[in-house]
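Escalation from tier 1.

The customer reports that the assembly of two entities below gives different structure tokens on two consecutive runs. Tier 1 could not reproduce it. I'm attaching the input and our single run for tier 2 to review.
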Amino acid sequence: MTTVPVPSTELTVGRQGHYAGAVSRLVAFAADVGASWGVYAVGVLLVNAALKLVTGHSYSFGQDKILSFVTLAVWDFVYFAYQWAVSGKTLGMAILGLQVVTREGGSISVRQAAIRTIALGICLLTLGIAFLGIVFQRERRALNDFMAGTAVVYDWDARAARLRWMARNQGPLRRGAEKKTPAS
Amino acid sequence: MTPNPIGSKVEQLAQALAERIVPLIVDAIDIDALLDKVDVEKIIERVDVEKIIDRVDVEKIIDRVDVQKIIDRVDINAIVDEIDIDKLVEQTELGSIIARSTTGVLTEVLDVIRAQGVGLDDFILRWGNRLIGRGKRIAKWPDGPPLLVERSVVAS
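Tier 1 run:
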């Protein structure tokens, strides 16, 4: 069995509360886009089925491009703004262990969550240029972070993760397993 | 009443004799030989420990001990700082307890994804800034927002 080596202490322990980097944020965003569009697609299917049941005629959102764009935009706004306002993190961010905080490190307000979501849409129109600040700015803030007065930090319990890692790869659990295997 | 002068002189003489004789006798005694003759086991057998314990009022002793004062004098933080958690996990059953109680397949996957993400974040940050000639400057950049970084410094 191959085992993943224990990550260095610098990589894990003590990173909670530090500014998050580009890769984690990009992966979290990709997960969010997948989740939000997935839920949207399921929602559209349900609405279509309901309409067909009630009216007897089949209707597809795809027929009206403006309507489908507007509903998708509204749904994405609700998806991001609601989750940021409630907990400071979206589903994708929770998976990657990230959180949106104020520039000082406090919880963000509903207003900041709404501004950040609208600003995210504007940033996407710049084809990635607005996100360069995540790599080149001292507080790793993208344009939407500047507009909303926010920052993104690591929120996962890295110390506990390191202990779990050690327990799996080096600890008595593994040593015990090795002892049980007959000597070859 | 006048003191008897003869009696006083005899007393002084006896005192002087005792001061000279007693050290001579003590030097002459072989303490080790004497102790060899003593049967300690027999003495212990004759001691009624139960009786001694019965006479000790433990409750009274406990009442006199100020536990709070002892706790106040112990620097728990200093003790915790001394503990090498990594070594503790490696050398004790603590590791397996943590693993059994907290590790699920999902947790394991998340740990891997997150740690890899942090590693790649650092890589991109380092090399991205090195490419534009700011490689050394990023060392002076803040680690995180003031509230969170100060809190983590205090906690550690």
